[in-house]
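Final report, section 2: Outcomes. Of the targets proposed, Response regulatory domain-containing protein is the one most frequently requested by collaborating groups, and we therefore present its record in full.
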Amino acid sequence: METISTSLQKGKALEPLHVLLIGNNPIEMGKVLDTLHKVRSQKVITEIAFDLKSILERLIRFRPNFILIDDNIGRVELQETVNELSSNRQTKDIPITVLKNSNYHEAIASSNIYDYLLKQNLSADDLYNTVKNSLRFRRTQAFLYQAYKKRKKQLMKYMQ
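The predicted structure is given below as tokens.
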């Protein structure tokens, strides 16, 4: 599914967002999908998966750069899904955001979850800002890791 953007940034089209939605409730996933389609400043390409098997099937032909997971799938399933995505070579570097029903339930503590959003009153702007910030954060992490590796090698050369 696609949301087509007509806006341009600095004379060229923005890179499309490839979002994988994961959840077990098709009605709620449809609402989130509708919210994503309201983002008019960005082209959004989405795929929806309902369990680990369908996630793996989607990953064969779809390369997401952002993952949204509905916490309705259950605490154990959510943890398993995050662990599987974090250990998969293809998805380990993709930011994950969890859509929560309320703030009253404990969030799963995982360094692989970049953000949490409440589904209640979720707007296209909130969702887009979360996606944008998570992608920036991930790029910053990757840059710092590369810089660390480079500086470490340089430091080792000086130590010899």
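The chain has one domain: 2-159.
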